[in-house]
Amino acid sequence: MKVVIAGAGAMGSRFGIMLHKGGNDVTLVDGWPAHVEAIRQNGVKANFNGEDIVENIPVVLQSEVSSADKKDLIILFTKAMQLDKMLQDIKPMIADHTKILCLLNGIGHEDTIEKYIPMENIFIGNTMWTAGLVGPGEVKLFGSGSVELQNLGDGQEDSAKELAGFLSESGLNAKYSDNIHYSIYRKACVNGTMNCLCSILDVNMAEFGATEPAHDMVVTVVKEFAAVAAHEGVELDIDEVVAHVESCFDPNTIGKHYPSMYQDLINNHRLTEIDYINGAVSRKGKKYGIPTPYCDLLTQLIHCKEDILGAK
Ligand code: NAD
After folding, report:
1. What DSSP string describes 165-208?
2. What is the pLDDT of residues 182-196, one digit of tens each?
3. What are the start-end ranges of the H helices in the chain?
4. Is it the case that residue 67 has pLDDT exceeding 80?
5. Which of 114, 142, 144, 298 has the highest Cβ tally under 10 A?
6. Ligand 1 pocket residues where CB is under 6 Å
């Protein structure tokens, strides 16, 4: 199977390294010239569970993708706002049989992907693996994780199960889900509370959780996500999802962690995925006639912060 990782930042590098170590034909495609050059010169450097490794994986700048090399599987790992441009640039790699797996955080990426790929070849999912980018060509990979995925096209369940099996052969611990939209909305509730609130308030998750209004704010945001999800036939268990979100407050587990949006926006002045998390709920809410005032405000506040910090 010829595999492309489209978007080889932190997570793309993790999946690229694990699949390449698993003996697969992997190519990385990325749009950051300094990162691509560093990988070309020195391979992908990683601290992999405490051990320094180098994995020499072929890499292509996304503006230089050629039509000669069609691929069997493309795993998308851009940031959400980079997805459409990536799909345009990798079009030459897409054949009629090419499958696409999207593991980005956020909601509604299938609307972008289906402009480029027929529905029967699209698979979406959710991952609990994590990764951090240290600098061009270098990542930090700690801990374990898992992947859940499902087919979007009718009758493609066996292909989805095969794809999960393929990922698992390289240790990615993937399984088929028969309700992936539930998992995607459930994870989006974590991102739609912790990411934006910690970034706006300049606190870690435990510090936010220790504030008096935290619980009410989490419940209100989760209810907005749940109302929009319900309109799409996804019935979130609000109490369970709130408990899941609030488990992030525990300072003895991950509470002292600053969420990825904080690290991207506050530390590195990078644009955020807010339009695909709370912003997606706002847009869908307007379309479905469902009020989403907290998501509307949180989206605007993050955009204010992006402007104030000159995020790129
Ligand atoms: P990332 O920011 O590391 O990489 C995404 C893209 O941005 C890559 O093409 C990368 O080269 C580029 N990029 C990164 N830093 C850059 C810089 N300074 N200048 C120019 N370009 C730069 O993103 P990620 O963390 O790999 O996330 C990819 C997707 O996976 C997102 O949807 C994210 O929400 C999701 N996700 C991330 C994690 C995680 O632990 N990182 C976990 C689960 C899901």
Report:
1. HHHHHTT--EEE-S-HHHHHHHHHHHIIIIIHHHHHHT--HHHH
2. 999 999 999 999 999
3. 10-21, 33-42, 83-89, 109-113, 157-169, 180-190, 196-201, 205-209, 214-231, 238-246, 260-262, 278-288, 293-308
4. no
5. 298
6. 7, 9-12, 30-32, 35, 77-80, 82, 104-105, 127, 130-131, 133, 260, 273
pTM of the model: 0.97
**Structure tokens, 77:** 């790992």
66/94 Cα distance (integer angstroms): 11
Structure tokens at 151: 């087919």
- Report CA(82)–ligand 1 centroid distance (Å): 10
What does the pLDDT look like over 213-242, one tens digit per residue? 999 999 999 999 999 999 999 999 999 999
Question: Could you tell me which of 134, 21, 135 has the C-alpha nearest to residue 3?
Answer: 21
Please tell me the predicted confidence (pLDDT) of residue 88. 97
- Residue 195: predicted pLDDT: 98
Closest Cα to atom 29 of ligand 1: 104
Given the structure tokens 């890499």, which residue do they identify? Answer: 59
**Alpha-carbon dihedral sign for residues 225, 230, 231, 232:** positive
Give the pLDDT band of residue 66 (cuts 50, 70, 90): confident
Q: Which two tokens stand for residue 65?
A: 């993708």
| Crossing angle of the two packed helices 293-308 and 278-288, in degrees rounded to 10 | 140
Give the integer Cα–Cα distance in Å for 61 and 27. 11
What is the pLDDT confidence band of residue 68, given thresholds at 50, 70 and 90? Answer: confident
What residue ranges define each of the domains in the chain, with the CATH number in brackets?
Answer: 2-178 (3.40.50.720), 181-309 (1.10.1040.10)
pLDDT at 287: 98
Question: What is the mean predicted confidence (pLDDT) over 57-86?
Answer: 94
User: What SS3 string covers 275-298?
Assistant: HHCHHHHHHHHHHHCCCCHHHHHH
187 catalytic? Reply is yes
